[in-house]
Amino acid sequence: TRELEQTYKTIADNYNNLIAGYKSYQDRATASIKILENKNNELEEIMRKIAIYGKGGIGKSTTVANLSATWASEGLNCLVIGCDPKADSTTNLLGGEEIVTVLDAIKEKGNDVELEDLVKVGYKGALCVEAGGPTPGIGCAGRGIITAFEKLEELDAYEIYKPDIVIYDVL
Predict the structure, then answer these.
(1) β-bridge mates for residue 18, sequence order
(2) Does residue 4 come out as left (phi exceeding 0), alpha (psi in the -120 to 50 range) or beta?
(3) pTM
(4) For residue 52, what pLDDT is reported?
(5) In this structure, what are the phi and psi dihedrals at residue 164, rounded to the nearest 5 degrees?
(6) Are 103 and 131 in contact (CB under 8 A)?
(7) How close are the terminal C-alpha atoms of the chain, in Å?
(8) What's the pLDDT tens digit per position in 118-129?
(9) How far apart are CA 92 and CA 126, in angstroms?
């Protein structure tokens, strides 16, 4: 379908942005290999952020899980952040297990939330977080996502886990 084609185009465009600084095909191929092998010091220090979004039901969560599993299998440190109030973005990476959302953990523990409460290790070491959100029709999902991002920053998640790639599965 057209929406699925657009999703794949978005993924391809995001990947192309990873290697955009390389002009020749040979340089791009070399950069791609180094990204997958995780051996390029220059690229290792750059955290890539990729958002997958689109119409519901087109396979965003499946695409995110497949990309994360592939990159994690290749040795890249992937952090998957589910940005859907349904909190089902990381289910495939966690073997069907549901995890506590950032918002639920904040509601339950307040300022005593620790990074270990929020981040779970999934398939091949992919790191999984679910932002969570309000019941549909009550409150703002965007505000919940922002709160989750702020909490991850506050707890130094990016410095501690040092992800090579952060993938956002956006509702």
Answers:
(1) none
(2) alpha
(3) 0.71
(4) 86
(5) -75, -40
(6) yes
(7) 19
(8) 999 999 999 999
(9) 11
